[in-house]
Give the backbone structure.
Amino acid sequence: MVEHALIDQETLAARIADVKARIAEACRASGRSPENVRLVAVSKTHPAEMVLAAVAAGLTDFGENRPEEAVAKIAEVDARLSDDADIRWHMIGHIQSRKARLVVRRFSLIHSVDSLKLADKLSRLAVQHDRVLDVLLEMNVSGEETKSGWQAHGWDKNATLRESLWNDIQSILLLPGLRVHGLMTMAPIVPDPEMARPTFMALRLLRDALQSDFPDVSWRELSMGMTDDYPVAVSEGATIVRIGRAIFGPRETRQE
Ligand SMILES: *Cc1c(COP(=O)(O)O)cnc(C)c1O
């Protein structure tokens, strides 16, 4: 394991201010209100100290993509945080079925529910623990083969695909212990952030279609946008952006 270079408080505060300013600017340009965009700081690979520094700089929401790493870090942060600190953890990475029990207790929002099988498992665990889990459904709207999430590329043109997606979603909405709040996606890595726009737009249009076909659910949340493309995601309606490198700097270990 490589030693992490801790950045100083001032650098961290400046980076956070910069990200918030760019979110506000993208909101202004698209007629949205910045209060409707939640900033999730992606702390994966970074130690608890970094999270504590970010809390001191005013951040409240943190994203992790590996259940074991997250559980250990959350415990460490909790132990060192003052009692009145109110922070929320987001699970944003693929969850293997056998790791599902790790995410039942500690997360405010699970962004990465990517199959009916996982939803079913989480539902059973939630019921066992007498909890309701707040979740997003992860969609692969770009068609990239490496991405996890439901295959949803071209859902508006492919009736078979749409039917199978709608069936899965219908089943998930009937599961006890889960509360669906919206959708999540990852855009492809592209040289120009504008090239990610069709992916973000596709997620928004899919959300609109689900809202009209399943009107009893609040499909409010669109979790989309990362360091390289978040202003574009905000201009397409992101309500949650997940930002790692622009806040914490480059990661020493490569993940995703
Ligand atoms: C790592 C990660 C991010 C943050 O990526 P950056 O490019 O560092 O902003 C966002 N979402 C998911 C699902 C991730 O795994």
